[in-house]
Amino acid sequence: VQLVESGGGSVQPGGSLRLSCEISGLSLRYYAIAWYRQAPGKERWFVATINWSGGSTYYVDSVKGRFTISRDNAENTVYLQMNSLKPEDTAVYYCAARDYSSSIYPRDYDYWGQGTLVTVSS
To answer: Which residues does the chain have with pLDDT short of 70?
Structure first.
């Protein structure tokens, strides 16, 4: 099983990025996916999650209304659209997968990607 994040980069405050998490080695339709982020010198924190069907999503309060998680099971890819980015969004973003139902706890996830760096700075 492999999860590969892409789409990170440098952007000015107020800008947008779309992260992708491409999954291989499993059928995405049976898995919930979450995005986490880790800022320099800090712990890894939950950002957003989507359940296996895409019918349920959940976000940390600090990104609600700015970030949108979505999935394309046919493409085995999950996305994180990030708008109105702020300097405090700067971090390495990771995607993770677990069976069916979503969770906010990293210990519940079985598979992880290597991360993609997002830098928000003027």
So the answer is: none
